[in-house]
Specification:
Blueprint (H helix, E strand, L loop, with lengths): L2 E5 L1 H8 L3 H8 L3 H8 L8 H11 L3 H4 E5 L1
Length: 70
């Protein structure tokens, strides 16, 4: 059985009443790269990016990342 990591960016944006564009501006990550993350198509994420997202969304890494078993 394999597992995959799901990015809960949509849920956090809705909870924080924040748009992807606002998040992009706040963390300095391109809209294109955030879209890739949001769609679950990213193959990796830098710790510095994860920290920036958590700071902007006022969350913990575990709120953003979720392990899903297939």
């Amino acid at each position: 059985m394999s597992s995959m990591i799901k990015i809960n960016l949509d849920m956090l944006l809705v909870q924080r009443k924040m748009s992807l564009t606002e998040l992009s501006r706040e963390v300095g990550i391109t809209l294109a790269n955030l879209s890739i993350l949001k769609q679950g198509k990213a193959r990796a994420i830098r710790f510095s990016t994860l920290v920036a997202l958590c700071d902007a969304l006022n969350c913990e890494p575990g709120d953003l990342l979720q392990l899903e078993k297939e």
